[in-house]
Design goal:
- The complex is a heterodimer of chains A (about 375) and B (about 375).
- With about 375 residues, chain A is an alpha+beta fold.
- Chain A is built from nine helices and 20 strands.
- In chain B, helix 2 crosses helix 3.
- Chain B starts with a strand and ends with a strand.
- Classes of the chains: A alpha+beta (about 375), B alpha+beta (about 375).
- Chains A and B meet through helix 5, helix 6, helix 7 and strand 16 of A and helix 5, helix 6, helix 7 and strand 16 of B.
Chain lengths: ~375, ~375
């Protein structure tokens, strides 16, 4: 089983520096997601690993082998494309056997390998069927099967779910996760969909502007974003951000958001140590704010319901205070309508503060 | 006052019916959503209302007037397509002004109108730029401006958010709803995305294979689905459906599967007209499946955790009970492990029962 190491990878296209020197590694059997908006350099990184682009500088290793100068077919890499690229005029058997035939493997060996893959991915009953007559779920499995039939060291997946409609995407995502657990191969998965990354990755590398902003487990990235960009990009609805300033008076430390303030005396030393300015941004996830129909604490803040998004089991309440909008995602609260006055309470253990100058997280 | 009324609209395709007996009324100023999977007939329906396709049968009323024989350009309909058909060689201003120039509106009036609509949609900064400098969201707004500048009396939107990034889609969703409210324009919005339908619709028509399954407010479509299709299509993660058989003995009424026995003796009346052995589908939304880690205290069925999908604020849990897999959803603070045994409790107050003969709800 293989490990992948990427060191100081840079890729320049003419005037555009698409990847600006990134380093990461992928452990044995681990799935690492490269996540970011379009143009962040994630696909370029993947193409460099696959050998479809030549890095401007930097090294890529599989285990201890430097693969920079190896042609794509000699790198030991399996690739699953955005639209799967399963050959429609070939049977499932021929699709799975394709890579092995190209490698001139013996017929009997090809046969046993194809059958092994078909068993693993539950394709035994459709082996003789033409690919154009398969369900989407089967096509996805054929695409993965074809990629892993050649026993690659590393599996690369380039936004495999992005062309599907919402309902199908959800289903295929769960299936992909199940396949992944069964196959257990070192993988790099590229996506712009934070939900896919959260559910499929062992670790996520969040990319922006050709750089990695943070690498970590999905729960770390979600709970402790290190930069404002990561905090905004991960999670739906987006984290609430409120401009505020840090003020100390009468022995108390508060963050002042003009319409309301929060007492942060207990963490004031951390804030002072880590911030470069008193101008901060308060961040709070929409599920970490409690809505009250009656004021229960001196910290409760009065707000007006501006809009309600129904999600089925839950709702997103858009709450207004002055010009600010705060989104709260919670179970449906009977009796709350657009125009209602309610109170909100921040869960102080779950708030984030960002330095407005550096955009880095303080807590 | 502009309402839209369809009476028994049908349309045949080459092999099968695309639309079958579609009747509904969209009220003045309402945002009416047509929600169904790809191929359900949504776009055909919109094109029939717009006058781009003639129905085989049925009547279309806009306001009081039957418009079947009115040409498309005289129906007062503004239609926005999935891919905004913006001219790449024209500036924002010229794109928006285009339909007015065709109508030979005086140039100073065009200027006034374009400025007005651009201010309203907050795209004044795009007027002098060409479309290749726009983001996806900006492109969509310019396309909408070109529709609105003709002051249509009704608005038809065909998957306008489909090609946008997940993040932009989320904010555009809320913005579209706000615009529609402020304009007070009767609107039909077609989408395949059930979440979009739930969050922005005043009412939703769930459509599949040319047949309308249910028309209701979002809460009711989610909480009281009338057919198996609606139950399955609306809600994410999807509803759990369990096939079971009716048993009546010793004055008891039980729906039985190989794993579960659901006692419906209290609601015996529901099953009065059904024979013993009749097949039903039980529908249980994931949030109504409650998991207990303490196996001794709880009563219920023991299952094994097969899959955990962390979506950030929540975790989607697949639990295996013998051959069945149920989906539940828990808060992010709940810690569970693969392979862990849990006790599964079902909230029977929120259960749905469908007759398998006609796939309709019996509640």
């Amino acid at each position: 089983m293989a490990k992948l190491f990427v060191k100081n990878l840079r890729k320049v296209f003419g005037e555009l520096e698409a990847v600006k020197g990134i380093s990461f590694n992928v452990d044995e059997k681990e799935t690492l997601c490269l996540l970011g908006p379009s143009g962040c350099g994630k696909t370029t990184t993947l193409r460099c690993i696959a050998g479809l682009e030549i890095p401007t500088s930097g090294e890529i290793y599989i285990n201890s082998t430097l693969i920079n100068d190896l042609p794509p077919q000699k790198r030991g890499i399996g690739l699953v494309f955005q639209d799967y690229a399963v050959f429609p005029h070939m049977t499932v058997y021929d699709n799975l056997a394709f890579g092995l035939q190209v490698r001139k493997m013996e017929k009997s060996k090809i046969d046993s390998k194809v059958k092994e893959i078909a068993r693993l991915l539950d394709l035994e009953n459709v082996l003789q069927r033409y690919a154009k007559r398969l369900s989407l779920s089967e096509i996805q499995r054929v695409a993965i099967g074809r990629a892993i039939a050649v026993d690659p060291e590393i599996l690369l997946l380039d936004e495999p779910l992005s062309n599907l409609d919402a309902r199908t995407r959800e289903k295929m995502r769960t299936e992909l996760k199940e396949i992944q657990m069964k196959v257990g191969i070192t993988s790099v998965y590229v996506t712009h969909d934070q939900l896919e990354a959260m559910t499929l990755a062992d670790r996520i590398a969040v990319m922006n502007n050709g750089l990695i902003e943070q690498i970590g487990k999905p729960s770390e990235i979600y709970d402790n974003p290190k930069t404002l960009f990561v905090a905004r990009f991960i999670g739906t609805p987006s984290m609430n951000f409120i401009d505020c300033s840090f003020i100390e008076k009468n022995g108390k430390a508060i963050i002042d958001a003009s319409e309301f303030y929060l007492d942060v005396s207990d963490i004031s030393s951390i804030i002072k140590e880590k911030s470069t300015t008193s101008e901060l941004i308060l961040g709070c996830r929409s599920e970490d704010i409690i809505i009250e129909t009656k004021k229960t604490s001196p910290d409760s803040i009065e707000v007006e319901v501006k809009f309600i998004e129904n999600l089925g089991a839950k709702s997103i309440y858009h709450l207004g205070i002055g010009e600010k909008r705060i989104l709260v995602k919670t179970h449906i609260i009977p009796g709350i309508k657009i125009g209602s006055k309610v109170w909100i309470l921040f869960n102080k253990n779950k708030i984030h503060l960002f330095d407005k100058k550096t955009n880095l997280a303080i807590i | 006052m502009v309402s839209i009324k369809l009476v028994n609209i049908s349309k045949k395709g080459i092999r099968k019916k695309i639309l079958e007996n579609i009747s509904f009324t969209v009220n003045d100023k309402e945002l009416f959503v047509i929600n169904g999977p790809p191929g359900a007939g949504k776009t055909t329906l919109l094109k029939i209302i717009a006058g781009l396709i003639a129905p085989d049968e049925g009547d279309i009323f806009i306001g009081e007037k039957r418009v079947n024989d009115v040409p498309a350009n005289e129906r007062g309909v503004g239609m926005l397509f999935e891919t905004p058909a913006i001219y790449p060689n024209l500036t924002g201003f010229d794109n928006i002004a285009f339909p007015l120039r065709i109508k030979k509106v005086p140039e100073d009036e065009i200027k006034k109108k374009v400025k007005e609509v651009a201010d309203f949609l907050q795209i004044s900064h795009l007027l002098n730029r060409k479309p290749n400098t726009y983001s996806g969201g900006e492109l969509q707004r310019v396309a909408l401006a070109r529709v609105l500048v003709r002051t249509p009396s009704i608005l038809l939107l065909d998957e306008p958010l489909k090609n946008l990034d997940a993040k932009i889609r989320e904010s555009m969703r809320v913005e579209l709803k706000r615009l529609q409210r402020e304009l007070g324009i009767t609107t039909i919005f077609a989408t395949h995305d059930q979440l979009e339908a739930l969050t922005i619709g005043d009412r939703i028509a769930v459509i599949n294979e040319g047949i309308i399954h249910q028309i209701d407010i979002p809460e009711n479509v989610y909480n009281y689905p009338k057919t198996v299709f609606t139950a399955r299509f609306i809600g994410s993660p999807p509803i759990n459906l369990i096939e079971c058989t009716l048993e009546k003995k010793d004055k008891k009424c039980i729906l039985k599967t190989s794993e579960f026995n659901f006692d419906f003796t209290e609601h015996m009346k529901l099953f009065e007209n059904y024979e013993v052995g009749h097949k039903f589908l039980l529908g249980i939304r994931p949030e109504n499946i409650i998991l207990h880690k303490d196996l001794e205290k709880a009563t219920g069925i023991i299952g094994t955790i097969q899959l955990i999908e962390n979506v950030g604020d929540e975790k989607i849990i697949s639990i295996k009970i013998d051959d069945k897999v149920l989906t539940s959803i828990v808060g992010k603070e709940v810690i569970l492990d693969y392979g862990q045994k849990v006790c599964v409790e079902i909230n029977m107050d929120k259960i749905h029962i469908f007759d398998m003969e006609n796939n309709k709800s019996i509640l």
